[in-house]
Amino acid sequence: MATKDLLLSYLKEKRGAWVSGESLSNEMSVSRTAIWKHVRKLKEEGYLIKSSPKKGYLLSRDSDLLLPNEIRERLSTRVFGKMDIHYFKELDSTNMKAKNLAEGGAREGTVVIAESQTAGRGRRGREWFSSSSGNGIYATLILRPAMSPIGAPRITLMTAVAVAEALLSLVELDVKIKWPNDILIKGRKLAGILTEITTEMDAVNYILVGLGLNVNTPSESFPKEIREKATSIFIETGAQFSRTRLIRTCLEQFEKYYEMFKENEFSSIIHRWKQLSDIVGKNISVGVIGQEHMGEVVDIDDDGVLILKDDQGRIQRIISGDVTLC
Amino acid sequence: MATKDLLLSYLKEKRGAWVSGESLSNEMSVSRTAIWKHVRKLKEEGYLIKSSPKKGYLLSRDSDLLLPNEIRERLSTRVFGKMDIHYFKELDSTNMKAKNLAEGGAREGTVVIAESQTAGRGRRGREWFSSSSGNGIYATLILRPAMSPIGAPRITLMTAVAVAEALLSLVELDVKIKWPNDILIKGRKLAGILTEITTEMDAVNYILVGLGLNVNTPSESFPKEIREKATSIFIETGAQFSRTRLIRTCLEQFEKYYEMFKENEFSSIIHRWKQLSDIVGKNISVGVIGQEHMGEVVDIDDDGVLILKDDQGRIQRIISGDVTLC
C-alpha cells in the first residue's frame, strides 16, 4: 500500500479521534515530516483532517470527491468499478474518454469518472449541462457483452431501470423514467443516460453507458434556460447527498440488471421499466424530427419501441423522439 | 488552382508531347525555376515526367499513387469521394483514422485512403495483411445514414455486392462473395470488408466501411502463412491494374448500392448477393467460437443470417462464423 493510503487507513481506523504524529511516524516507519506531507495531499483530495501541534491529526470527514479508493471501499460488485476506475477532475466528456480507452482495449467493467465536464453530451449530439464544482456524477461504463448487435440498444432501458432503482433505494423521491433515457422527479430531469454502441456486422465490439446525474447542484447553478426543467437531489430534499455512496449503489444496481440482461431476463426488466415509467395509458405528444405525433401510449415493446394509438385508433411505432405529456 | 495542379493540367492536356519550359512559364506567369520545382514535386508524387533542356517537359504516365485529385478526376459519384478524401502514405489503419475523423464530425462521403497500413485490422480484431509498397487499396468510407441501428449490419452485405460488381465490371475474373464479408477468387481472398457501426440507442451515429483489396501484390509479398489463401488481381491476371481506376469504380458502385439500400431496396441487393456468393445449396462447415456446425446452406435471410440445415433436417441460424466448403 502506498504511504498515503496507509496513512489514510490509520486515520480512518481512529476516525473522529486524535492520532499523534509521533505514533503514526513510528507505526509507519516514516519521518514526521513525511506524515505531514501526506496529510497535506489528503487534504488536497478533499479529506477534512484537523491538525494540532500537540494532539496530532484527526480525520473529521472523508473526501467528498469521487475518489476511486473511496468508491471501491464498500463496493459489492464483482466487475464494474472493481478494477479500473479512471478518475479525472475535469474531462471534455466521460463518454469520449471511455471511447478512447475502449478503442485501446479497455476491459468490461472499466469506469471513467469526472468531477466536471467541459463538453458533456446528451443524445444526438445535444449538450448536457455539467456543474463545474463537482456537484454531479458524470461517469461512463465500458461493456463488452458477447452478443449480436440486435439486442444491444436495450442496454439504455436496462440502465434507466438500474439508476432509478439505485435512487429509490437511497432517497425518498418520486423517481420516474421518461422514455427513452431520462430520469425525472416531478417532471424535471435529474439524470440522463447516453448509450453508445460500437459493433461490427455480427458482434458487439463495446458499449459505452454514460450517466449524468445532478446530485448536489443548487438551482442557481443551472443555466437559466434549463432551470425550470432540471433538478437535483439537493433541490428536491434540501440536503447534500454523498455522491460516492450514490455512484456505488448505481454500479451495484447496474451490475445486477446487466447480469439479468445477459441471462435473457429482459422481459422482467421491461416489466419493471413500465412500472417505473408510468407512461403506458398516458396521452402524449412525441416530436419526431419535423413531425408531432399525438396519442395514447398502448405499450413499450421489448425493443423499447413506443406503441402509440392516435384518436382514430391507428397504431404507430415510435423508435425515437421527445415526449411531452398532454 | 494551385500552381502545381495548374502545371499538371497543362501537361495532361499535351500528354505524350513535349511542352517547353518557356511556354509553360509564359502561360502560367511564373518563372522557369518555379516550373522546374513543381515538376520535381509532381515526380515525387509518382508522375513520370521526362525533361530535356531543349524540349522541355513530357508527361509520359500519371502517378500510380492513389492521389485524391486523380481519383476525383473522372469520378461520377455525387457524394463519396467528391468532397473529402484524406490521403496518407502510411496509417496504422484507415478504419482507426476514419473513426477519429467521424468522432470529430466528418460528414458522409468522407474517404480515408492509405498506401499502406501498419496495423490493418480484420473482423474481430484479427490482423489484416497490408502490402507496404502501395500495391493494395486500403480505404474507409464514412456513412451517416438517418436510420435505426437495426438494419445497419446489412451494410456489410451491401458493400460486398458493390465491391464484387466493381471488380466484375473491370476484370474478367470469377469473383465470389464469401459469407459474410470476403471477396474471393477461386477460393482465395482478394478483398475483405470491415464494417464498424457506432449507434446510440435509437439512431445510427456513423458507420465505417473499411476495404482492403489486393491489387498489384505479387505472391512473394504475402507472408508465408497466408500465401496459399490470398490472391491479388496481379496474381490472377499477370498484369498490373490501375488502383485509381479500381477505387473510383468501387466508390461509384458503392454509392449506387447505398442509394438502393437507403431506398429500402434491400431485397434486390440480397438477391444479387446470393447470385454472387454461390453458397446457397452448398454443404459447408461453419466454425462458431468453440463449435463446428455442418450442413447445407438453405438460405441467407435479409439480415444476412445463414440458414443451415443439418443431416437430420434441423435448421440452424448462424449469425457469424468462419465458413469452409465441404
Quick gist of this model?
Two copies of one chain form a homodimer. Chain A is an alpha+beta fold and 326 residues long. Chain A folds into three domains: 3-61, Arc Repressor Mutant, subunit A; 68-277, BirA Bifunctional Protein, domain 2, CATH 3.30.930.10; 283-325, SH3 type barrels (Roll).
Q: How many domains in all of chain A?
A: 3
Instruction: Give helix % range of chain A.
Output: 25-40%
Strand content range of chain A: 25-35%
What CATH calls the topology of the largest domain in chain A is BirA Bifunctional Protein, domain 2
Please provide the ordered H/E string of secondary-structure elements of chain A.
HHHEEHEHEEHEEEEHHHHEEEEE
Q: In the CATH classification, which architecture of the largest domain in chain A applies?
A: 2-Layer Sandwich
Largest sheet features of chain A: 7 strands, mixed
**Total E-strand runs of chain A:** 14
Envelope shape of chain A: elongated
Q: What structural class is derived from the secondary structure elements of chain A?
A: alpha+beta
- What is the arithmetic mean of pLDDT of chain A? 91
Looking across the biggest beta sheet of chain A, what order are the strands in?
A: 3-4-5-9-8-7-6
Q: Regions of chain A with pLDDT < 50 over 5+ consecutive residues?
A: none
Name of the level-1 CATH class of the largest domain in chain A: Alpha Beta
Oligomer: homodimer
Specify the number of helices of chain A.
Answer: 10
**CATH superfamily heading of the largest domain in chain A:** Bira Bifunctional Protein, Domain 2
**Radius of gyration from the alpha-carbon trace of chain A, in angstroms:** 22 Å
- Biggest interface and which pair forms it? A-B, 29 and 29 residues
How many angstroms separate the termini of chain A?
58 Å
